[in-house]
Design brief:
Helices cover 39% and strands 18% of the residues. By secondary structure, it is of the alpha/beta class. It has three domains: 45 residues, no CATH class; 79 residues, no CATH class; 189 residues, Rossmann fold (3-Layer(aba) Sandwich), CATH 3.40.50. The strands form two sheets. It has an eight-stranded mixed sheet, sandwiched between helices. Strands 1-2 form a two-stranded antiparallel sheet. The protein is globular, with a radius of gyration of 22 Å. The two termini are 33 Å apart. The structure holds guanosine-5'-triphosphate and magnesium ion. Guanosine-5'-triphosphate binds next to helix 5. Guanosine-5'-triphosphate (GTP) binds next to helix 5.
């Protein structure tokens, strides 16, 4: 990696900003296969790169002073340049909520000299980098630190069970990890059967837990598993009792909680979902059904509202193939599209 960074500096000089360095492998979301080193850089004498934390975590909105010299502060009224007005409308059409649209534009404009505020292409380019920066993604689990217990929660029908099957199949069949499944979705026979069939096909154990005590017992029984995936029943964000019951199940369980949201969710519902499921403290976000929409503002909105990193995106009904670990850059491109 040092060699890759040094060669970028040697070629482009000391003004080259290192935007991103990645060390990954070629297969299974970069987890196995030959190592590849990537260094993404840029040259911009005005731009001061923000400090990026090496630990994956939700990113707070950076104050303007961290992003280079403070310039004029943009106002979103009739005095906006035509370029900014166009971009404002464009972001709104991409289902990005008004407050996020304003905060994105404000941050980008604050980083640019005022003479560039009419340069639509330049602002757009900077928007891409900013959106990529705001969507924090995490690599799939390493198991050197011990067992992982992961719970998927979310509204009904978003694809929790299917996503569990995709993750289980990838880690079990391709990565040869010991995976175990637990379901607490015992309200419908069909729900248990759905997961049972996946468990049989993949060849991994399934434990059915009818109450919080049985959930704890199930986890204890699966001590030998590298990864335990826990499926939960879909809950309506408007049903206080359902959310409270979920909270009861999870309160004494030491697990990583992933909120699953479909990319087809209405922007106005995203805030309600995050508020309701926020009661069980969300550690990661999974966005499903990217294949069912053409506007992807929900990805940015969910990551920003939860302040949690994104673990996976899913792109179809196929098990195990329609799941990816996306990068911020790729998602920014998807959200903003071409200029
Ligand atoms: N197009 C598309 N369909 C998906 C995706 N993920 C899941 N589905 C489909 O969505 C439907 C619901 O999936 P489930 O996995 O049962 O959803 P769930 O969240 O477990 O549903 P409940 O347990 O009822 O809350 C199924 O028809 C899945 O095949 C995806 O990424 N894209
Ligand atoms: Mg389900």
């Amino acid at each position: 990696m040092q060699e890759a960074v040094a060669s970028l500096r040697a070629e482009y000089g000391s003004d080259a900003i290192i935007l991103q360095t990645t060390q990954r492998r070629r297969w299974l979301w970069g987890r196995i296969g030959p190592k590849v080193y990537e260094v993404v850089g840029a040259i911009d004498r005005d731009y001061k790169a923000p400090q990026v934390n090496s630990r994956p975590q939700a990113r707070e909105e950076a104050p303007a002073k961290d992003n280079g010299p403070v310039r004029d502060t943009p106002k979103f009224d009739s005095s906006m340049s035509e370029a900014v007005q166009n971009l404002y409308r464009r972001l709104m059409r991409r289902d990005i909520p008004q407050d996020l649209t304003q905060s994105l534009l404000r941050e980008v404009l604050t980083r640019l000299p005022k003479q560039d505020w009419n340069d639509e292409a330049r602002i757009w380019e900077r928007l891409g980098a900013l959106v990529a920066e705001r969507i924090v993604t995490v690599d799939p689990w390493e198991f050197s630190g011990g067992q992982r217990v992961v719970v998927l929660v979310g509204p009904t029908g978003v694809g929790k069970t299917t996503t569990i099957a995709k993750i289980a199949a990838n880690f079990s069949l391709i990565d040869a990890k010991k995976v175990g499944l637990i379901t607490v979705d015992t309200y419908r026979i069909a729900a248990v059967d759905q997961l049972k069939r996946y468990a049989e096909i993949i060849g991994i154990p399934l434990h059915v837990a009818f109450d919080p005590q049985e959930l704890k017992e199930g986890i204890a029984k699966m001590k030998d598993r590298d990864l335990i995936l826990i499926d939960t029943a879909g809950r309506s964000q408007n049903n206080f009792l359902q959310i409270n019951e979920l909270k009861n199940y999870l309160q004494d369980v030491d697990a990583e909680i992933h909120l699953v949201i479909s990319a087809t969710t209405k922007s106005t519902d995203v805030d309600e979902i995050v508020r309701a499921f926020g009661q069980v403290s969300i550690d990661r976000v999974i966005i499903t059904k990217l294949d069912e929409t053409t506007s992807y503002g929900v990805i940015l909105q969910t990551c920003q509202r939860t302040r949690a990193p994104l673990s996976f995106v899913t792109t179809g009904q196929g098990v195990p193939e329609d799941i990816e670990v996306a990068t911020g850059e790729k998602l920014a491109q998807l959200i903003l599209g071409d200029m």
